[in-house]
């Protein structure tokens, strides 16, 4: 056992999927891509609806355009929901392959002077504090954001609430507010 402030817990499949999805949802370029895709799908379906309605019903063009706009907006919104479901399902499949038959993987996180040390599934990383972007206190844990991604120290990884608070304060002290982004 080290003298560093640490969190130590078993991460479940759902929690690992959650961390991946948090990273994707917070990525500005991916969010723009998802919106763009939904708009393109909505516009294409709306245009198709206008042509289909006009050719079948032979109604005034104004009504066709209005109905096409409504169809496009609904389909575009639905595509965002389906995309989220698909992303979650695909991410879960990839992580489940990594887990194999295990129900959880050991996760250890330590605040060290040189950086955040993480050991998970027999792999160790030392993330330099210079690449830290933010430390966020969330209901289920402490999010430590780095240029490359995210580490989540789950609440149950701390022996006491006081240990969690010490960890949070020490992590925030290593990431100056001027460098915090998001």
Which features does this protein show?
single chain, 182 residues, alpha+beta, PH-domain like, 4-stranded antiparallel beta sheet, 3-stranded antiparallel beta sheet, 7 strands
Overview of this protein structure:
With 182 residues, the chain is α+β, with helices and mostly antiparallel strands. The chain has two domains: 5-12 and 104-179, PH-domain like (Roll); 21-99, no CATH class. Helices cover 53% and strands 26% of the residues. The chain is built from four helices and seven strands. The protein has helices spanning 13-26, 28-57, 61-99, 161-174; strands spanning 5-12, 104-112, 115-120, 123-128, 132-138, 141-146, 149-154. The strands form two sheets. It has a four-stranded antiparallel sheet with strand order 1-2-3-4. The chain has a three-stranded antiparallel sheet with strand order 5-6-7, sandwiched between helices. α1 (13-26) packs across α3 and α2 packs across α3. The longest helix has 39 residues, at 61-99. The two termini are 34 Å apart. The mean pLDDT is 87.
Describe, in short, the structure shown:
The chain has 182 residues and is α+β, with helices and mostly antiparallel strands.
CATH topology of the largest domain: PH-domain like
How many strand elements?
A: 7
Q: Taking all residues together, what is the mean pLDDT?
A: 87
Indicate the overall shape: elongated
Overall CATH class of the largest domain: Mainly Beta
Characterize the main sheet: 4 strands, antiparallel
Would you tell me the structural class of the helices and strands? alpha+beta
Listing every helix as H and every strand as E from the N terminus to the C terminus, the arrangement reads: EHHHEEEEEEH
Total discrete domains: 2
Strand order of the largest sheet: 1-2-3-4
Binned, the helix content reads 40-55%
How many separate helices?
Answer: 4
Q: Report, as a whole number of angstroms, the end-to-end distance.
A: 34 Å
Low-confidence stretches: none
Please give the radius of gyration in angstroms. 23 Å
Percent of residues in β-strands: 25-35%
Based on the coordinates given, report the CATH architecture of the largest domain: Roll
């Amino acid at each position: 056992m080290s003298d560093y402030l640490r969190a130590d817990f078993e991460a479940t499949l759902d929690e690992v999927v959650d961390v991946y999805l948090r990273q994707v949802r917070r990525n500005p370029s991916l969010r723009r891509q998802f919106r763009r895709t939904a708009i393109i799908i909505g516009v294409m379906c709306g245009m198709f609806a206008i042509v289909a309605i006009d050719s079948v019903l032979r109604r005034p063009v104004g009504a066709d355009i209005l109905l096409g706009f409504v169809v496009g907006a609904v389909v575009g919104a639905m595509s965002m929901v389906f995309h989220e479901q698909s992303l979650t399902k695909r991410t879960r499949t990839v992580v489940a392959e990594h887990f194999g038959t295990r129900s959880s993987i050991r996760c250890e996180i330590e605040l060290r002077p040189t950086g955040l040390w993480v050991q998970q599934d027999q792999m160790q990383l030392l993330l330099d504090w210079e690449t830290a972007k933010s430390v966020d206190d969330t209901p289920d844990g402490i999010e430590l954001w780095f240029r490359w991604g995210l580490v989540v120290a789950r609440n149950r990884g701390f022996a006491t609430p006081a240990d969690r608070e010490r960890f949070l304060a020490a992590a925030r002290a290593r990431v100056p507010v001027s460098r915090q982004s998001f």
